[in-house]
Design brief:
64% strand, six-stranded antiparallel beta sheet, 22-stranded antiparallel barrel, mainly beta, 852 residues
């Protein structure tokens, strides 16, 4: 049942597994294997069992999953003589699914490929001669093992979450409740990740994470970027909470890396997805590939148009205090009830190719054109009154905001292999350019107590932001095995530039025209140039494996405020060490310790001192004195695999200095009282937590995934000389259960609870969500139909409070629930065919399978 049960076995256990397999298949072979050194091999190098083979021939290839198209690590590969079926040599595939059997004498052979949960594959008629010493088997596809028990069909499948040496890999196709949705819906049920009811994503309690797409920086960062990408276009998600020195250090919580779907098999293939949801929700995407010999071409497109209807309520109190006694003289109350819609539209067109220049070098070029927009349209009922009584007024606030981003990116990659042992050189050039345009318009109308307009002319304001931007990155990475370990070094040059013009206008009745407000409108120029280099080495250390790395960075940032003719420069060197220490206690038990240092940089809006309206009563401005915040992260993890599943226990400590924190207050602007938001470097914060995950096959038709985490968070800071230290202990749990029924039917039920947490000036309450999904496959899995319901109990409500000396606020949001989605997936050329590989032929199913 569990096809990925060996995913947790690391380098030391690879040799042990080879010994066991070869001993069972050939006793003579096992005697020789047992004399092999007990030292663990390099983690990224295939583990090959030494045998009696002595020759110049070698056989190589890669192993992949027919349903996910993903690489299968730890698959067992054995090469046998054709005449007497004696084992010549064997090995276990590396993390990319690759194997390379060397030192093979001339002769006739066959190859056996096997992995738990898959149908064993045998490839016959492999010939090694002096004229044809190298046989490339290409991509060998394994199919999940299917067993029929009564009326229930049992299909082996990938674990939804798999643990690697430095990350957690989420198999998106296993989350059927997210079909037709975005990546935020996938992350709702992912370890280490929290999602609130507004779709805001945090990684172990922090929203400061770096978002990558296929290892490259996403143009739209954070939760907004995740809300724009359809889950159907994604193969895997990688959650990296303790990145090594090889990665950019941005995002103190870690990295979320999105691996998009790709076609790796010969021929033409593709996949088409379409989804329709309740109350105007439509998405669709298509991916087509053509692969032949040295070239792989792909083209794809995505479209989305989704509306979500939300409600909100809130209360604000502002206090007028006696400056001598600090007693409250009067209180102003504002009660709010809002009703509105969020609309997200997106279009993405992408294409590119991979070309094999030689057997040892390749070139890849890809490009994408993207148009994404977000629109918010809300009507808010406001009631203002005083105590003691001075005024009692009512008005309607019609607020409409849009945010549109059009951009394109180009990515060029070159790889050169010097041998088959991991000695490589990689060069990459990434360019992105585009423009963001934001617009906000407010209509404030006086009404009576029933919120019927009194006839008074509304107060109107509007603002616009035009922001051209570009990003350029050039990277060079070199990897070379040295002795029993591996050295990795690299250089990067990074340039991020934004030009932003903020225009604020008031509407004047006398001239019936919009008037430019030069006290708020402003223009700025922002450039952040970062030059960095890193070095890492990993290898065995007694019974341990270790990896040590250091990244050095020169950051030269300048914010030029053109309106006020002021420059705000930041120039400094930073160092980011990382360290991994792993001990494989046995085949089933492993412990791991990690350390990394990260940075969170303020962006141009965090730094811009000019005020910017966010609605009629909210104003935000930056703090040019902000400095980056730095985080030291420590993890101690334990993983245990057993017959019917696996369990992991992760403990972590994360401490941040110079914490960038939003603070709130009350001020008077343009003759009226408004709520002010800005930023400061609070003293520090820290969190310590425990995460537990268990994935179990309770029966052959019932899979249970249970995740829970508890953490203590403390924020220590001073605002205007006042100590605002706060702390809380909160917890979160996810329950995901899947029933594999007959007729290729699956039912998935999940429950998610997020506990309360604290902020610098208040707290957020907990909430609970339940999702249900039913998936049905047709025509031998060529067509899949999924019906899902999200937040079926309508319990996803988000509330928070914030308070200071002169104010108190309470807000509560209720998102649209339940939401029903119907998703269709069609796989082009989802057939099984015999395919020639090298000079051998296949026995069993091979060829292309665009399964998900």
């Amino acid at each position: 049942m569990m096809k990925m049960i060996l995913k947790k076995i690391t380098r030391l256990s690879r040799i042990v597994l080879v010994i066991l397999v070869t001993a069972a298949l050939n006793p003579e072979m096992s005697a020789q294997v047992q004399t092999a050194p007990a030292r663990p091999p390099d983690q990224n190098a295939p583990t090959q069992a030494p045998g009696p083979a002595q020759g110049n021939g070698h056989v190589k290839g890669t192993i992949s999953d027919s349903t996910t198209d993903g690489a299968i690590e730890y698959a067992t590969v054995g090469l046998y003589r054709q005449n007497d079926s004696s084992l010549v040599t064997g090995m276990i595939t590396d993390p990319s699914g690759a194997f390379d059997l060397k030192g093979i004498p001339n002769g006739q052979y066959y190859l056996d490929v096997n992995f738990i949960g898959y149908v064993k594959k045998r490839i016959r008629n492999i010939t090694i001669t002096p004229q044809s010493a190298m046989v490339n088997m290409g991509h060998i596809i394994l199919h999940p093992n299917i067993t029929q028990i009564g009326d229930v069909q049992i299909v082996a499948q990938s674990n939804r979450v798999e643990y690697k040496i430095d990350k957690k890999v989420v198999n998106v196709s296993q989350d059927i409740a997210a079909s037709g949705g975005t990546l935020v819906n996938v992350l709702e049920n992912t370890p280490s990740v929290q999602v609130d009811v507004e779709g805001n994503v945090s990684l172990r309690g922090s929203g400061n994470f770096q978002l990558l797409i296929d290892g490259k920086p996403s143009v739209i960062q954070g939760s907004e970027g995740l809300q724009q990408i359809p889950a159907s276009a994604v193969q895997n998600l990688e959650i990296i909470t303790s990145p090594s020195a090889k990665y950019d250090p941005d995002g103190n919580a870690g990295i979320i890396n999105i691996i998009m779907k790709k076609q790796k098999n010969l021929g033409v293939g593709g996949v088409v997805n379409a989804s329709i949801g309740s109350r105007n929700k439509y998405t669709g995407d298509i991916l087509l590939n053509f692969r032949k010999e040295k070239i792989n071409l792909f083209v794809g497109a995505e479209y989305g148009n989704q509306k979500y209807y939300n409600k909100g309520e809130g209360e604000r109190r502002t206090y007028d205090r006696d400056p001598l006694t600090d007693n409250i003289l009067s209180t102003t109350y504002q009660e709010m009830n809002s009703d509105g819609v969020f609309s997200r539209k997106s279009f993405n067109f992408k294409g590119g190719f991979d070309y094999t220049l030689t057997e040892m070098s390749s070139l890849s070029l890809s490009a994408a054109l993207t148009d994404r927009s977000f629109e918010r349209n809300f009507v808010t009922q406001n009631h203002w009154y005083d105590d003691p009584f001075v005024k009692d007024s009512f008005y309607l606030d019609n607020s409409k905001g849009t945010d549109q981003r059009r951009f394109y990116n180009i990515n060029l990659d070159y790889q050169k292999k010097y041998d088959d042992n991991g000695h490589t050189l990689q060069a990459s050039l990434y360019y992105n350019a585009g423009k963001e345009e934001e617009a906000e318009e407010e209509y404030v109308t006086e009404t009576d107590a029933d919120f019927i307009a009194t006839g008074t002319e509304p107060i109107r304001t509007r603002s616009r932001t035009n922001q051209p931007e570009f990003s350029l990155r050039a990277e060079l990475d070199y990897i070379r095995p040295i002795g029993s370990g591996k050295l990795e070094v690299g250089l990067q040059s990074r340039w991020d530039k934004d030009e932003s013009e903020y225009i604020f206008e008031d509407y004047q009745l006398e001239g019936n025209e919009w008037v430019y407000n030069d006290t708020i409108s402003n223009t700025l120029d922002y450039l952040d140039a970062i030059q960095s280099g890193y070095a890492m080495y990993n290898g065995p250390l007694g019974k341990f494996e270790y990896q040590v790395g250091l990244r050095a960075e020169y950051d030269n940032r300048n914010l030029k405020q053109l309106t006020s003719n002021e420059d705000y420069r930041y120039e400094k060197f930073h160092f980011f060490p990382s360290f991994y220490l792993i001990r494989q206690l046995s085949d089933a038990h492993k412990v791991q310790f990690t350390y990394s240092r990260r940075i969170q940089r303020p962006d141009e809006r965090d730094l811009n001192p000019f005020k910017e309206y966010r609605g009629s009563n909210n104003v935000m401005y930056g703090n040019p004195a902000l400095t980056p915040e730095f985080t030291n992260s420590f993890e101690l993890n334990y993983q245990y695999t057993f017959k019917k599943g696996f369990m992991s226990v992760e403990t972590y400590y994360r401490g941040t200095t110079d914490k960038i924190t939003r603070i709130s207050g009350i001020d008077s602007l343009n003759g009226k009282q408004v709520f002010i938001n800005t930023f400061t470097n609070a003293d520090e914060d820290y969190s310590v937590g425990l995460e537990v995950m268990a994935n179990m096959d309770l029966t052959k038709w019932w899979v249970l995934n249970l995740t829970g985490d508890i953490y203590h968070y403390e924020l220590q800071g001073n605002i205007e000389g006042q100590n605002v230290t706060s702390n809380s202990t909160t917890w979160r749990t996810n329950l995901n259960t899947t029933f594999k029924l007959k007729w290729d039917t699956r039912l998935q039920v999940m429950g998610i609870y997020n506990g309360p947490s604290v902020t610098l000036q208040g707290q957020r309450d907990g909430f609970f969500v339940t999702n249900i999904a039913l998936r049905q496959d047709f025509f031998k899995k060529q067509l899949t139909v999924t019906l899902s319901a999200r937040d079926v109990l309508s319990t996803g409500k988000f509330s928070f409070t914030s308070e200071g000396d002169n104010f108190y606020t309470y807000n509560k949001f209720s998102r649209e629930a339940p939401v029903f989605l119907l998703n269709f997936t069609y796989r082009i050329n989802n057939y099984k065919q015999a395919a020639r590989r090298g000079n051998g032929d296949t026995e069993g199913d091979g060829g292309m399978d665009m399964g998900m």
